[in-house]
Amino acid sequence: MTIATILLDMAVFDNELFVNKDGKDEARGIRAINIVQRWFEAIVAGDDEAFQTFGNITQTLNTETTSWPTDLLRLDDLWLMDTTITPNLPVRRLDPIDETGGHRPAMLGVTQLVALTITTGKPFRYWATQPPGGVIFWEQIPDAAHTIRWYGLVAQADYTVRTDTFGYPPICGAYFSQQSAKILRMGRDDSIADLRREADVALRDALKASRHWRSTGPVGRQYQDVHVT
């Protein structure tokens, strides 16, 4: 499904839009779709595992941090990869660090001298700061260029032409076209806050509609009452 489909659907919601190829509203229509997409991703980023994808980052020897993956909006999990086998496989989940900063024992009376040692090795915990400029801190300090697999939500690139491929399931397209058409119909005195609230409800419905339903496995019968015949 391409952006052209969403543009044509926008003309159904508002028949005064000229969003056909080279139409006077085509460029504004694509910009409106990009705005709706950013609103949608702001909602999806708060939903665990929705539209989850993955990628790899590589640590730097003796370096405490690694740059935040490009365009990653939501970090779901980090796993240490075993690169000695083919294909590479995740072997250990890294635990998030719940606290930040250092700690020291309370000093009552006699000053306590605490020897701090920096350990290196394969990472087993992490803590991250928010982008832009975000980094992931490692414990332990990497003793090699270990490969780490991340799982999370990545922002789709902005669309620029009608032939671009839509980055979400086709079922989301109707919600995008409806909200994009509303953006183009806005007048000077219309409330942006009202539009945003309406979009929030509609896009949450789009997220719900796009979920892949999973059936449960077989469940055995359990008899609680014994009947004697």
Question: What does this molecule look like?
Answer:
The protein has helices spanning 3-13, 26-44, 173-185, 192-209, and strands at residues 53-58, 65-67, 72-82, 89-93, 95-96, 120-121, 125-128, 135-139, 141-142, 147-154. The protein has 229 residues and is an alpha+beta fold. The chain has 2 domains: 3-47 and 168-209; 53-101 and 112-154, no CATH class. A 4-stranded antiparallel sheet has the order 1-10-3-4, with helices on one face. Strands 2-8-7-5 form a 4-stranded mixed sheet, with no helix packed on it. It has a two-stranded parallel sheet with strand order 6-9. Strand 3 (72-82) and strand 4 (89-93) form a beta hairpin. Helix 1 (3-13) crosses helix 2 and helix 3 (173-185) runs antiparallel to helix 4. The N and C termini lie far apart (63 Å). The mean pLDDT is 87.
Tell me the domain tally.
2
Biggest beta sheet attributes: 4 strands, antiparallel
- The percent range for helix content is 25-40%
Runs in which pLDDT lies below 50 for 5 or more consecutive residues are: none
The helix-strand sequence is HHEEEEEEEEEEHH
- Secondary-structure class: alpha+beta
Strand order of the largest sheet: 1-10-3-4
Radius of gyration: 25 Å
| Total DSSP helices | 4
Please state the overall shape, judged from the principal axes of the Cα atoms.
elongated
β-strand percent reads: 15-25%
* Number of beta strands: 10
Mean pLDDT over the full residue set: 87
Straight-line N-to-C gap: 63 Å
